[in-house]
Specification:
Length: 570
């Protein structure tokens, strides 16, 4: 294998990877359009497309009881819920002393409306009385089996003071009458039920009715909630969607105490109901003590409903209840004219970059132009896929991030080209200069892009609204920039370095000797300019004198001393 074939094979391999990436992304997008409801055009944000405005009113008896702190907390939670599936850039603001205005891009479906208005107040209560249970509680051993429930028995008179939340003493004659009259199909305000009192509640489908003890674990003690497929001990999936919960230290201890008390009891006293906004979404059986603070909510979940519940629990319950009082379609705040202006601005910036690169680097500038075109195509595919899969919407701020990214991307090419020129000035051949220049340039490129990416991440985490869209597109284009430099720009220069046009330093190549301050001889070999020969001879003479070693000087001194001694002896 000849040395010159190695860069060529490396370049071919890199370009093949780039082609593979494009094929995969195009395949994903086309498949999404044909079978997944995707679109070839990215979704637009509220300022460019318009959307749905939902006005929520706090459900309290007196407006003075709604504090600004409660409204601000609700705004933060609702914004996080809406944006949980992507950078939708929804606008959530307060109006008056008790209303919240939510503006969502596009048409808001019922699932989105439920996500916005759900109180998501979660609690864990022991089951005192129940009909037929619907599922089980999964313990550390991963085992769970259905079981029959006996007919409930209710005492006619109050008993002694309850010893724990599962005690039958909680059931009084009045509670028994309420239980018998309780209609599962009617609306009930169970979300505001006292935590230290028993609760009558029903399954989500209305088929089972419960008497539950006081709250033993609060939903506020959940530190994380995620949706996923239920798995067995062997790692196989059951095909059922569940919500995985992780408690903080307080919640984990309380959960361990409760499961320790309930495990081994007769049904239904070993059930632990998971209550969301006054409705039982799962009443599983405690099969084992759960001491690690991790549990699952199982039920008739779909992927969307499991993710929606996980988001609600993860970001917390609303401090007060809200009711939707109006919903209207709103027009775009900027519109198509501003969108056209944004595209025109981007084209002007791109045109200026093209003119500069061709003026500065001649035909070498076409490498920059093609790199920008490929980076633009790759960015478009990524944004279109994210728009489909993650709910991303492109706003005017996002377009600004893409325009700014053009300059950042060109910086990488300029650093690389100038490094190559420096190596050529030092006397290297073009192929060697390309490899040496890449080794020096990539450190600078990685450092600069790392700073850009860090800034984008920090801005995305700390900002809200349109600023997040700017940070998001800036971060995506930074990653794509590095990818393009590695798998396209550098491989193309490796291949061009083997052509006679570029390696011979043609004036139009951007690597001509006059522009670089050196003179070519043959294939990228240098000779010393004539005008510089005399000065070089003089400097060489001085250098030769400096190279006299210490040993040589000592020998000269010893020889001189010996001659003097001989003269004295004679």
């Amino acid at each position: 294998m000849s040395p010159r074939s190695t860069p060529s094979r490396q370049a071919t391999r890199s370009l093949s990877w780039l082609g593979f990436i494009f094929i995969v992304l195009i395949g994903v997008l086309v498949g999404g359009v044909l079978w997944g409801g995707a679109s070839y055009v990215p979704k637009l944000a509220l300022d460019l497309e318009g959307g749905t405005q939902i006005i929520l009113e706090a459900q309290v008896e007196d407006s003075s009881t709604v504090s600004q702190e409660q409204l601000d907390q609700a705004v933060s939670i609702i914004r996080q819920r809406v944006n949980a599936s992507g950078v939708t850039e929804a606008e959530v603001t307060t109006e008056g002393g008790r209303n919240i205005v939510v503006a969502i891009p596009g048409v808001a479906d019922q699932e989105t409306r439920d996500r916005v208005t759900a109180t998501a107040k979660l609690s864990f209560r022991p089951v005192i009385m129940a009909g037929e249970p619907s599922n089980e509680f999964v313990g550390e051993d991963g085992q769970s089996t259905p079981y029959p429930s006996p007919a409930p028995t209710v005492p006619n008179e109050p008993t002694a003071k309850p010893t724990d939340a599962s005690d039958d003493s909680w059931i009084t004659e009045k509670l028994q009458q309420e239980y018998q009259a309780f209609d599962c199909d009617a609306e009930h305000d169970g979300a505001n039920a006292p935590a230290d009192q028993p609760l009558i509640a029903c399954e989500a489908d209305g088929t089972v009715k419960y008497i539950l003890g006081p709250v033993e674990v609060e939903g506020a003690n959940i530190s994380d909630a995620t949706a996923g497929m239920e798995t067995t001990q062997t790692g196989a999936t059951t095909g059922q969607w569940v919500v995985n919960l992780e408690f903080n230290k307080v919640g984990a201890k309380s959960f361990a105490d409760v499961t320790s008390r309930l495990t081994g009891k007769e049904p239904p006293k070993n059930q632990f109901a998971i209550v969301l906004d006054g409705e039982v979404i799962s009443a599983p059986r405690s099969m084992a003590v759960i001491s690690d603070g991790k549990a699952q909510i199982s039920g008739n979940f779909t992927e969307d409903s499991a993710k929606a519940l996980a988001d609600q629990l993860k970001y917390g319950a609303l401090p007060i209840n809200f009711k939707e009082i109006s919903s209207n379609q709103i027009s775009a705040t900027l519109g198509s004219a501003q969108l056209e202006i944004g595209f025109i601005t981007g084209l002007i910036g791109l045109l200026l970059v093209v003119i500069y690169t061709l003026f500065q680097y001649r035909l070498l500038g076409f490498v920059t132009i093609f790199s920008l075109i490929i980076a633009g195509a790759l960015t478009y595919l990524v944004i279109a896929i994210l728009s489909w899969r993650e709910g991303y919407r492109l706003s005017m701020a996002g377009i600004a991030g893409l325009i700014v990214a053009i300059g950042f991307t060109v910086d990488s090419f300029i650093v690389y080209f100038e490094r190559i020129r420096d190596e050529l000035r030092d006397g290297r051949g073009l192929e060697s200069a390309v490899e040496a220049g890449w080794k020096r340039a990539r450190r600078t490129i990685y450092s600069a892009k790392g700073i850009n990416l860090l800034a984008a991440v920090v801005l995305y985490v700390l900002a809200v609204g349109n600023v997040r869209g700017f940070a998001f597109t800036l971060g995506v284009t930074t990653i794509i920039d590095v990818l393009i430099v590695v798998v396209f720009t550098h491989p193309m220069l490796q291949l061009l370095a083997q052509t006679r046009f570029f390696s011979s330093g043609h004036p139009l190549s951007g690597l001509d000797p006059e522009a670089l301050g050196a003179v070519y001889r043959g294939r990228a070999q240098f000779r010393t300019p004539v005008a510089a020969k005399r000065s070089k001879i003089a400097s060489s003479s001085k250098e030769a004198q400096k190279r006299q070693t210490i040993a040589e000087r000592k020998r000269a001194e010893l020889s001189s001393a010996g001659s003097k001694n001989e003269e004295k002896d004679s």
